[in-house]
Amino acid sequence: MKRNLIRPHYALACLAASLVVPLTTIQSVQANPSPVLLNEQPADTTCTITLNPASSGSLKGRKFNVYSIFDVTTGTGGAINYTFTDNATTQLAIQKAIYKSRYSSVEDDTKIAEEAGKITIAEALKYISDLQEGEKAGDTTSQSGSFRGFSEILRKEFVSAGITPVKEYTGQGGESEQITGLNKGYYLIDEVTGPSDAAERSYGKSLCMVLTVDGDETIDVKGVYPTVEKKIQEDDDKVGWNDIGDFEIGQTVPYRYLTTIPNISGYKTYKLIFHDKMDPALAFQPDSISIKLTGQADAGQTKDYTLTSDDYKVYTDPEDLTGEDSFKIQIEDIKGIIDRKIYGAAEGSVQDYPYGQKVEIIYNAKLTTAAAADPGKPGFENHVCLEYSNNPDSDGEGDTGTTPWDTVVAFTFQVDAVKYGEPETSDPTLSKKLANAKFQLFRDEDCTDQIQLQKMEGQNAYVVQADQDSGGVDIVTDGTGKIQIIGLDHGTYYLNETQAPDGYHAPLTPLTLTITATYPENRNEYEAGQGDTEAVLKELAATVSYIESYDGQSHEAKPEVEVDLDEGAVQFPVINRTGKELPLTGSNTAWISLATGSVLVLGGIGLQKKKKN
What we know:
- By secondary structure, this protein is mainly beta.
- It is built from 6 helices and 37 strands.
C-alpha cells in the first residue's frame, strides 16, 4: 500500500549558532516505496555541503565530523523515502537519542535500550519534525526537549557508541569550505576541534543538522563561542566608551567588558571567567565591579538582572591566578543565572531557552603615581580574555576555550616649563633662569580647585598626587628655573605663580594651559602594542597664555610651545619682569628737592598755626 510523504524543505539546525530552518511536518512515511512512483536515483547521487564562515571567523584548521542519520531516496512526483542508515549501531544510537530526549527522567540504561529499539522510522521522523516545528513557533521545550537539545543528545550517542563519521573534514581557510562526495541524506555535522592557532584561540563547538534532499546545500557557520570586547571610558569631548583614553594620575579610570552568550543549549552549566591583565601603573578597585545581564524573556520582553556577589567571585591573590593575570572575575554558571533570573525557571532545574543575552561588566581602576615614570608613549594598556565552557559533555567542568585578548590603552602627559628673567635679547632662553618662583596648579580659572602635587624624590619634578585628599606641596623652581609637572590629562589647567623670585614680579594672571591630544578618527580598533607607534597618539599640542605687566601697561603673553610626542611633554618659557626704579632715586637733585619740599611743608604748617593764633 502506497503512502505519500510531504517533501521536507532544506533543513538546518545549528546548535551553537541558534540558527534553525524548520522542516515541514512529516505526516506519513513510505516504508515500501512503489516502483511506479519511486525511481532509482541517477548515477550521480552525490552532493556537496558548503560551509560559509559568516561571523565565526576563519574555518582554517577547524575539524568537522559528518554523521549520517537517515538515508534518502527520491522518486517521481516528489516522493521521498527515509530509512535508518544501514548500520544497527547507528540506528540504535538514533533511537536512544529520541527516547532520552522524550523521556529525560529515565536513567535505566537497559530500559532505555529496550524501549528505544521499538521506535520506528515513522516515529523518529515525526518526533524530529515536531521538535523543529516547536522551535519555529518559539516553543523550545516541546515534548520535554528541544531541537537543539536533541541534536546534542544525538551527538553524544554517536560519540559514545563509537560511530564512525561518513566524512571527516578540516577547514582550509578559504572564503567557503566544501564537504563533497556525500549521498543525499540527513546529516549531523559536529565540530570537534578549534582552529590551527588553538594556542591563542579556542572555539566552542558548532553542531548542525542538514538535509540534502535537493542536492547541494549551504550552511552559514555563525559564531559558536562567546566573544569579549573591552572598552575604556574617555571623559573628554564626550567621546565615551572606546579603546583610547587619557587621564590625570589619581583619576578613576572606568573599564567595561561586553560579551554575548552563545547558544548554550545542551549544557547543564556554563562557566565564564574574565582574565584581566593591567599595566602596573593601574590599581584595580574590586569594590567597583558591577555585572548586568540583559536579554529577552518570554513574550519578547527585555529583562535585566544585576548579579550579586553570590553569583560571581573575584580573584586577586597571585596563588589563584595564572600567567600575568592581575585579577579574574568568575561566573561559575551563567546558564543557571539566565534560566532563573531571566526566564524564571525553578532553582536546580535544567532547561533550554533561547540564548543570546548580553553580559556587561563595569569596574574602575586608578592611575597611580607609578605612571610618572613613563608619560606619553607607549601608554598604559589593559587586556582581557574570556575563558568559557566549550564541551557540553563536561557539564561545565574541565574543557574550556579562550577568546583572544582585547586591549585598551590610557595616556598621561607632562609639562616642562622654564622660568626666565626679563629677556635682554629677542631669545628669552638666553636670559637668566630664576630659582625660588612658587606655583600652584588648579583645574578652574578662579583657582579654587587645586590639584595636589608631590615632589619626586631626588628630582625637581612634581607629580599629581594619587590621593587628592592628603594635601600636597607647591612647585618651587631650582637654579635651572625648571617647572616640571607629570600626570596631566587632555584639557585646560591654570598655573598660578604665588611668589615671584626676589626683585621680580609675577604675571598678573595665572597661566592658562590647554593640552590637546589627537587620536585616530576611529578609536575602536586599538591593538596591543600600538601605543608605541604613530598610529594612536598621533599629535600632541598645547597653548599657553597669561597677562603680564611692563612699560606701565598690561600685555598678553603667548609663549611658543614645543612638544615631545614620545615623552608626552609640552615645553614653554615663563618670563618674570623686574620692578621699575623711581626716576630720581639715588641722585643729589632728589635730596635737594626733598629738602625743599620739607621746608615748604614746615613753612606751611607755621603759617597755618599763625593764622589760627
